[in-house]
Amino acid sequence: MAKFKRILLKLSGESLMGEQGYGIDENRLSDYAEQIKRVSEMGVQIGIVIGGGNIFRGLSGSKKGFDRVKGDQMGMLATVINALALSSALNAIDVKAKVLTAIRMEPIGEFYSKDRALELLQKGFVTIFAAGTGCPYFTTDTGSSLRGIEIEADVMMKGTRVDGIYTADPEKDPSATKFDDISYNEILERNLKVMDLSATVLCRDNNLPIYVFNMDVYGNLEKVLSGDAIGTYVHP
Hints:
It is a single chain. The chain is an alpha/beta fold. The protein has helices at residues 26-40, 58-63, 68-92, 114-122, 140-150, 184-190, 197-205, 220-225; strands spanning 6-11, 45-50, 97-101, 110-111, 126-130, 155-160, 165-166, 178-179, 181-183, 210-214, 232-235. The longest helix has 25 residues, at 68-92. The chain starts with 5 loop residues before the first strand and ends with a strand.
C-alpha cells in the first residue's frame, strides 16, 4: 500500500546526464522510467516536473552574457526536451504519459491547466509538466511547488543525487550530518540550499510537505512510497 495517493515528483535535469557531461544518458532515463512505472503500478497518481540543467540553465547563462529573460526561456525549452524524452521512455514500457506545457506549443505538448492535469491524473496518466511556470525569474523548484499545490498533491518528492538534507553540502563537507525530518522554518533559518527561497516558502504557506531523497539509486522511489525512511521529510 502506497504511503501517498498523489505525488509531485521533482527530477533534476542534471541527474539525467548520468555519467556524461551533457545531455541525456539513456541508461539513467531508462532507470527513471522503470522506477516511475513501478510506483504507477502501486496506484499512485504521478505528476512530474523535470529541470533542464543538463541542457541549459538560464541563470548561469545570464552570467555568460545572455539576456536573463531569454536565458530563462531557453531553460524552459530545455525542460520541454527532457519532458518529451521521459514521456517517450515511459510510453516505450507501456506507461501512459502526457506532457503539459506552461507555454503554448501544440502539438509538442498540451497547454497546461489544472482541470486537464487532474483529469489526466485521475485517468492514470503520468503527467509531466514542462516549461516551468512559463515566466522568467522562476526556477523549476518554484514550478514544482506551484504544480504540486495546484494538483493537490499529498507530497512533493524531490529526487536528488544525495540521500536527504544535510547541515552542509555532504559532497563538500564530510562532517555534514543528515536530518531525518526538518521544518520549513528551520530550513529557512539555517539557509539550507534544499530549494530556492520562494519554492520553500510556497510549500510552507500552502502546507505541501516535501520528501528529499536520492532518485539515482534504483528502487528508492518505490521504497519511499512504501514507507521506508531513506530521505528527509520536510513539514510544518
